[in-house]
Protein: aminocyclopropanecarboxylate oxidase
Organism: Nicotiana glutinosa
Amino acid sequence: MESFPIVDMEMLNTEQRAVIMEKLKDACENWGFLELVNHGISHELMDTVEKLTKEHYNKSMEQRFKEMVTNKGLEVVQTEIDDLDWESAFFLKHLPVSNISDIPDLDHDYRKVMKEFAQKLEKLAEDLLDLLCENLGLEQGYQKKAFYGTFGPTFGTKVANYPPCPKPELIKGLRAHTDAGGIILLFQDDKVSGLQLLKDGKWIDVPPMSHSIVVNIGDQLEVITNGKYKSVEHRVIAQPDGNRMSIASFYNPGSDAVIFPAPELAEKEEKENKLKYPKFVFEDYMKLYAALKFQAKEPRFEAMNKAMKTTVNLGPIATA
């Protein structure tokens, strides 16, 4: 069985660069997921983020989650639940405007460290996009420009906890889905597992590793790469023991960014009038995704294609 792709970013500065770039290429083309080590974010910062995230859950969220479970009778369910997730989460916005000062119950130190962590992740996401451009034969900065829109990319973080579940065979931690956005960077618990991806019809565990960052491809990168890189279904399996921490940061296009396959990657299909993917405004896609998150992505692309045929032709991507 193939081993889960792990990419050591420090090796990019050595004579092994070509090998690492090939490994990155294979992960994007055949897995839609990879795990980064030596990615430049200090272990000390990550340890602080983990410590304060777990403290915040215990102090401000655990009791609310327990009350929700009791109110919905989830401890005693007898049949599979398919309309909710065993998850306690909140969301932080970083770009274009931060909301971190507006989130209640966050201690000063936690706000401060999450701002710093977000800045490091933003740079890592942009560095990764340039590495993907290099592998794809696109000019440096192409993907960032494609994401830009009027006010720059959108970037936010979902901070989630998956507490011990009494009925893990009946309730998913998080139901299977692909991610709507661009590139996703995940700092996950290194002791409690649960994240799985679908590969070749089988669910495969994403291994918990200390101080790693898990990366996965979102729907928008699938479109921009004209399907060369694909977003992959993934899910979280609830566990009977342990509280799994998950900090997923989404580097996405700006709300008015126009998304379409990079011309260099779609040239042949364009000539044959067989473009695989539509051209659309990211915000329109997100409105559709909100209602269809836990369904297959292909009908979403088809719906956007039909919608765009009824509107005026959209111009080129913004490069401001």
